[in-house]
Structure formats: structure tokens, C-alpha cells
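cron nightly-structures :: item 1 of 1
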Amino acid sequence: MNAARACILALMMCWAFAAFADVAVPPLSGRVVDQTGTLSSGDIAALTQTLKDLETRKGSQVTVLIVPTTAPETIEQFSIRVAAAWKVGRKKIDDGAILVVAKNDRKLRIEVGYGLEGALNDVTAKRIIDEVITPKFRNGDLAGGISAGIDRIVGVIDGEPLPVPRQESSGLLNHIDPLNPFALFALFVVGAILRATLGRLIGSAATGGMVGVLAWFIAGSLAASLILGVIAFILTMFGETIASSGGGGTYSGSSSSSDRGGFSGGGGGFGGGGASGSW
């Protein structure tokens, strides 16, 4: 009997702890994370493209998170945990912002990184919430409110002088198709000549070196030149073997989804700046 009571008491304590446990911060799977199914795929795609264009243009990272509730925490407590976990914005520039919406609580917050607090200050963030977002929310148009709010946030950030975005080393690779037939033909011709002249190993290494130097002059990126040089070396060294085996499969283009392939925060810092509201 005592054992049964102990078990019941333990279960009740577990339920009590679960009821008061903090909401887990979801992983940063994209620029828009909707855990409520509020936004359509088209809404998410449009918002994602807007935010991706902002990052390309200004370097600043802005994200949207929609959760059912933040209870037992306030939205301010939850949002700062999200900011600490996601780390959106560039490291040491801290130009990130997060729009957090707690749908069932009817609460929202704009969390602002240190580097944007000059333009997207507390007063400006509060005006965006009160004048742009919540009027649409009160009419049941959450997607429209979020879209309008993001447009206003982007407009404010566009007016802020920020360091120019650094060109990613993968930029050249994104514009070069290593399976382009003309590039492959030129590579095999040059590789064949160098292999016949210098031998298989040295000729392949020379081909890789030439491609790497060319990539360095075009992109100015050591990482891109090394990657393309290695690819050229492998194709020259083993190209005949790959071709004779049929290539091992087919190539398909990259997905058109804006965040397909990954998105992560840049290490930006937050200090609690921003504003909250309700509808």
C-alpha cells in the first residue's frame, strides 16, 4: 500500500514539474520557424526570400518564430532564450532581430541585437508592433501582420549603416556547375595533354593547380580555389575510370526552396533590446 502511494506521489510530482517546465527552444531550421501551422508554404517562402535578400544586401539576419505558448515564462524571458540559442546576426556586429509570436497567448515580441539598437530601438520596435502588426492580428490576419511587420523591420534595417556583407567563399562555387559539359570537355582536354606530357600523377596535379590558380584570380578566395583544384585533380586522375563505369548516377539541380540546404545564425549577440505587445 505504501509502495502504491509512493508511486502515485511520484507521478503527480512528475506531472507538476512537466506543467511548469520551460518551453524548449526549437532548432533554427530556417529563417521562418512556424510550430503552429499558421503560415502557408507560400507565406513561408515569401518571407524567407525577403529575409534572405536582406542578408545578402545588408548582412543582417532576421528570423520569425511562431509558437503556441511561452508559458510558464513571459514572452520576454522566452525570446531572450531563443536569441541566445539561435545567435542570429553577424558575430561582433550583432545585427540580428527575431520576431517571436506566441499565438495562443496572443503575445508577440521583436528581439533586437546590440548592433541594430540604434535604428531598430525600443520605441521603433514598439511602433511597428502597435501600428503595423497587431491591427492585422486583431482582424485574424496573422500572416498579413507578420509580413507587414517584417517589411517594416527590413525597411528600418536598410536605413542603418552596417558593415558591407563579406562575400562567402562558396560564392564562386554557387555559380559554377562542375558538371557543365563545356567545362568538363576543356578540363579533360587540358588534363589529357598534361598527363601525356608529365605522367598521370604529375599531370593531374598540374591540372588541379592550374584550375586552382584560375579560381583564385576569378574569386579571390583561397577556399574556393583549393576546392576546385582538388575537384580538377580527381577528375583528371580518375576521369577515365568514372566515365567507363557510367558515372554512378544522375545529377539533379539544387532545390528552389530558399532555406533548403541549411541556415544558421552568425554568432550575433542580444542584450534584451526590443519591444513586446499583445492583441
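cron nightly-structures :: done
The first strand starts at residue 32 and ends at 34.
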